[in-house]
Structures are given as structure tokens and as C-alpha cells.
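We include this case.
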Amino acid sequence: MNNVYEGKVMWSHLDVNMHMRHSAYADFAAQARISVLDSLGLDFKTFQELKVGPILFREELVYLREVGINEKIKVTIELTKSRPDGSRWSIRHIVYREDGVRAAVVTVDGAWLDVEKRKLTVLPAELVEKFATLPKSIDFEEIRA
């Protein structure tokens, strides 16, 4: 499985200082997360059929270096925390500039939401197995309920 998303910084991603705006980092991290989940079979069609979707409780961005227009960036994702049933989790995204320098670290804490009941839920067992194949960080921690 490829846990790297690649993209190009566009004009719309810039702020008044002519570097990538704060929320664009979160957008790239979200797209990386969705792309990797999609590659595991956790795609929007499946979520719609199950009436389930990912929900975030926390998103933290640490900015390290500037990124400018037309730069190609890479975003990696790794699972840093998860309950054994995959119902709660944390994912770390590292944003790299095209020169290989770390530009930002985005960490999110999330869960799965039953979109009809508006309550937290657990994925079916076969999807829990797929979710568990996400690359784990060196500091991965299993969360106990």
C-alpha cells in the first residue's frame, strides 16, 4: 500500500505572504488520508452504503518551513494510535517540500460516525481489518477503551 500522497501547490493555496496558507496544509492532509483509505477499500461509496463516515475531534498543525507556489509536495500518513476495533484513532501526516525538507506535521484524532443516528460507531469486521493495515508509526500506541 502506498501511504504517500503527492500534490502541487496552486495559487488558491497561498496567503497574503505568498506561501501556502494554514488551512491548505489541513486540506492536503485530508486528501492524503482519504486517498490512502480509498486504496484500502474504505472509499466514499462504501461509507455511503454503510451510512458511516470519518469524524475528527482534534486537528493539530505544526508548521516547520514555508512552501511556495508550484512546489510539489508529498504527504505521508501513519497510524499513531488506535483502539483494537479501530473505533478511535490518531493519524500523523508529514508534509514534505519537493526538496525533501519537512514543511509541517498534521496530527488528527478521529472516529467513525453513524451518519443517520449521529452517534459514534464501529466499522464492520472486514473493514476494521483493512483499516488495521495502515502503516503504523514507530511510536504507535494501542488505545484501551
Summary: The mean pLDDT is 96. The radius of gyration is 16 Å.
